[in-house]
Each structure stands twice: as C-alpha cells, then as structure tokens.
Design goal:
The chain is an alpha/beta fold. The protein is built from five helices and seven strands. Strands 1, 2, 3, 4, 5, 6 and 7 form a seven-stranded mixed beta sheet that branches.
Length: about 250
C-alpha cells in the first residue's frame, strides 16, 4: 500500500516538473536583447529623411571565444543593417586602397579616355562607429552540470527539456559613436543578444533574410545565430537614436 502511494506521489511530482519546464522553456526559446540604456529598445519606424554619414571601424575582439574572422563578419552585418535601415550613408574605409588604385589609373593616363572615374570626390564621414566584441558565448550554459548521476542532465522527457533549456547563446558589443572632427565620443552603450533553443526547433530566417557575415557561417540555424542577429539589430536601433539630429543632413 505504501509503495502504491509513493508511486502516485512521484508521478505527480514528475508531471508538475514537466509542465513547469514547458512553461518556463516557452519563454527561453524566444531571443532577447538588452541595452544599457533605453535608446535602443523601441522599434525603428520607416524613415525617408536626410541621412547621417558614418564609417565603421574594424571591430576589436576582446572575447576569448571570438576570433578576428568573427569580428569581420559582425562588422559586415552591421554595415548591411545600417544601410538597409535607410538612415545612413556608409563610407567604406576597409577597401579604400582599391578605390585609390582606380583613381591612380585615371590620373596616370593608363585608363581609357571614356573612364567615369573622378578624383577628389571621396566622401569623408562625420561619425565613426566603433565596436568591441566583449562577450561571445555560443553555449553560454551547457550540459556539464545538471540532474541525475554522473553530472548528466538526465534522460527521458524531463531530461530532454532541461538539455534544451541549457542550450543558450550570448554575445555583447560595446558601441561608441565618435565625432571624426573632434574625436569626441558623443554616445556609448553596451548591447547584448541572447537566445535559447530546444534541439530541432531552430527559427530559420529569424529577423530577416540577410546572411551571416564571413566567419559566422558555422553558427547558422543555431541559438548563436539568433543572438547575433538580435545584437546587430539592437545596435542599429541604438546608433540611429543616439546620433544627434544635426548629423542627419545628407
């Protein structure tokens, strides 16, 4: 009789944990983003006015699990997102040597007479956007510690739910907006992206169809892809709203 009652008690506890796990995991599967102030939290409305002219510096990589390729890929994604927002004219500095070579061909007379290349027309940026990758965790928490013997998460339905809950990715960028004439930092913040996902429930095409930048393709269809996209889009929101209106003049 006692054994029977104990069976009912364990079944009840197991059912409660599964239901509670499902309820909590529903929130965890949604990607989230956090900024250190409220400037980047509101969605950007459509925009058709004058644009600000900016240049994007090379990303500084400080996170232990990120590489130079990760920094380059994030920079590419930020440039694409800034241009697509309709609020910015982005001047390229990384490939400036290629532009200069074309102009040198024109000046030297080596180019054909009908060349459309002109000199003295390179645009300068009023603002420099600087970013540092300070956190990059493809698996911010994983299945090392958990429930059950041997340090594992456990097996069965509850074990599967808990393993999914622990599959969380996280990244953070420190953003600075610098006046190129004075070198003054006019705004700065820290933007974070975070996402959790249960295996097999990857949200493909999350936040648009533009692809991951070079060096980031290994994270496609993973929680890290979601965290990256959320972080980049929140960075664009912050930059757009933190730049003073006087810089929007082109």
């Amino acid at each position: 009789m006692i054994r029977k009652y104990l069976s009912f008690i364990f079944l009840g506890i197991g059912g409660f944990l599964i239901i509670s796990g499902c309820a909590s995991l529903e929130g965890l599967t949604q990607p989230t983003a956090v900024v250190d102030n409220t400037a980047g939290t509101q969605p950007l409305p459509p925009y058709y006015g004058p644009k600000a002219r900016v240049a994007i510096a090379n990303f500084e990589v400080k996170a232990a699990k990120a590489t130079g390729e990760v920094g380059s890929g994030l920079r590419e994604m930020l440039i694409t997102a800034l241009v697509n927002s309709g609020r910015f004219r982005v001047v390229e500095r990384q490939d400036l040597s290629a532009v200069m070579r074309e102009q040198e061909l024109k000046v030297s007379g080596a180019a054909s007479g009908d060349s459309q290349v002109t000199t003295g027309a390179i645009k300068t940026a009023d603002l420099i956007i600087s970013a540092a990758v300070t956190e990059f965790e493809p698996q911010a928490s994983g299945g090392g510690a958990g429930i059950g013997g041997g340090g594992g998460v456990g097996s069965g339905i509850l074990g599967g739910l808990l393993r999914g809950a622990l599959n969380k990715a996280h990244m953070a960028l420190d953003i600075r907006i610098i006046d190129s004439s004075t070198s003054e930092i006019i705004a700065a913040t820290r933007v974070q992206g975070e996402a959790s996902d249960i295996s097999g429930a990857i949200m493909t095409g999350f936040l648009g169809s533009w692809g991951l930048g070079g060096g980031l393709s290994m994270y496609k269809n993973t929680p890290m892809e979601k965290a990256i996209r959320v972080c980049i889009i929140e960075a664009v929101k912050y930059i757009a709203q933190a730049i003073p209106p006087s810089y929007y003049k082109y």
